[in-house]
Write a structure and sequence with these properties.
mainly alpha; 3 helical TM bundles of succinate and fumarate reductases
Length: 216
């Protein structure tokens, strides 16, 4: 097990598996968020269930997510250091042929997403960003938060970064895990692009709808 952890392929597999766990959570989280379009009562009932009958399940989910996130970040950091050690002097010129913008921005995009996750937790989970938020009044808190243009802009930009991160991750993870064959057309990534777009649209729709007055 230790040899697996220390190997490059082992670290890539751990990174892929932890990423898949994150994607599953994002799909569930988006589905919960979209209940805002069904009205305040529906969204707040959903929040009450998560903090009531399903509280233990939510706690377990958070533990799994924290472990997955720590492993994902740790593996990314260790693989980056390993790559730099293998090539201490960078290429004089890089002319990527099958690499995408998403692939080339994974590292700094991941760092910015990590910072956003911390902000998001402080904003809507612990309520430290705005102490006037009312616990379990998720709908009211969401509507109040996204009246402010800078918060809407922050979330929209963060979701764009998330979409780029997911686009590359959703394509590379199955290949790392051996679940997808090599492709003769590596730039054709329709499934990854479709799911990344779906998650981007779902998460972005709520703050934009509040800002435009659709949700009030």
């Amino acid at each position: 097990m230790l040899a697996f952890y220390r190997s490059t392929i082992g670290k890539k597999i751990i990174m892929a598996v932890s990423g898949v766990i994150g994607v599953v959570f994002l799909i569930l989280h988006m589905a919960g968020n979209l209940q805002a379009f069904m009205g305040a009562e529906k969204l707040n009932e959903y929040a009450a269930i998560l903090h009531g009958p399903l509280e233990e399940v939510v706690l377990l989910q958070r533990v799994v997510l924290v472990v997955a996130l720590v492993l994902h970040v740790l593996m990314a950091w260790q693989l980056t250091l390993r790559n730099r050690a293998a090539r201490p002097i960078g290429y004089a010129r890089r002319d990527p042929q099958v690499s995408t913008v998403a692939a080339r921005t994974m590292r700094w995009g991941g760092v910015l997403l990590l910072a956003f996750i911390v902000f998001h937790i402080l904003h809507f989970t612990t309520l430290d960003i705005d102490p006037t938020f009312v616990p379990l009044d998720v709908y009211g808190n969401v509507v109040k938060a996204f009246q402010e243009p800078w918060k809407v802009a922050l979330y929209v930009v963060a979701m764009l970064l998330l979409a780029l991160h997911l686009y590359h991750g959703l394509w590379s993870a199955p290949r790392t895990l051996g679940a997808a064959p090599r492709s003769r057309w590596p730039l054709k990534r329709r499934l990854a692009a479709g799911l990344a777009f779906l998650l981007w649209a779902g998460f972005t729709s709520v703050p934009v709808a509040v800002f435009l007055g659709i949700l009030r």
